Amino acid sequence: MQRPAEQGFQIGKLFTSGLSRFPGENIEVFACPIFDYIAGQCLTVCVTQAGLGTVVVHENFRMQPWYPKLKSLIDEGVIGEPYQVSFWLRPGDGQGPEAYLSRQPYFQQMERFLVHETAIHLIDTFRYLFGEVTGVYSQMVKLNPVIAGEDSGGTLRLNGSGKIRLRKHGENNWVEVDYDWLDRDYAGDCVYLTQKHVVDHLLTGSPVLNTGRDYLTNLYIEEAEYRSSDSGQIILLT
Question: Can you tell me whether residue 187 is helix, strand or coil?
């Protein structure tokens, strides 16, 4: 079995050989299980050094319409400076011997699972909302014996239907925040919004999110999560 670095170099060479006829093109990469920090770094370096443009990672969580709205509220200072954020997720589809077999059966065999497949999206989203991570502490457990990797880990209020509620500092009343979004397809049509964001960049030169170089920070944080879980220690990233 190839190591991630070897996989990253091979994918990078594939891109450079196949797209060398189109210098300056931007490349969008879908997140996939083989990508860790080393593989992502190898891919980004190969493509960049070949002059093939910018690698853009298809990371669509931050494009779910409620997150840009939350970011605008935070940036406007409507809740002051955030000092504590809690996030709980119970997807409910990883239970029993048939967990994930109907849609992504390889999930059961992944030795790195919850952080690599799910929390990586939240790492990216939290960086988008709150800035860079300075340290991590992680405790991981495995609840379902048919899954090889970890499947559990140990208020800004966003509910499951996309509603945002705001309580300003010094007030007791919660107010629902109105914003534009469409309840269609996956998670507020975030896949389409991600693709549109990249196309707008290509057509107009508007700033693009999730370049390969920036996304490497997410993968670096992911690695730190696993090191923290293994060592039982806080991992400082500064």
Answer: coil
Give the DSSP letter string of 155-173.
Answer: --EE-TTS-EEE--TT---
Q: What are phi and psi of 224, to 5 degrees?
A: -65, -35
- Which sequence spans correspond to the domains of the chain? 4-59+191-212, 61-188+217-236
Question: In the numeric block, which tokens belong to residue 32?
Answer: 């996939």
What angle do the packed helices 120-130 and 66-76 form, to 10 degrees? 30
Residue 1 has a pLDDT of 39
Quick one: CATH architecture of 61-188+217-236?
A: 2-Layer Sandwich (3.30)
Measured CA to CA in angstroms, residue 90 lies from 94, 114, 145 at distances of: 9, 11, 17
Digit-coded pLDDT (tens) for 10-44:
665 666 665 555 555 565 555 454 466 766 777 77
| Entry pTM | 0.62
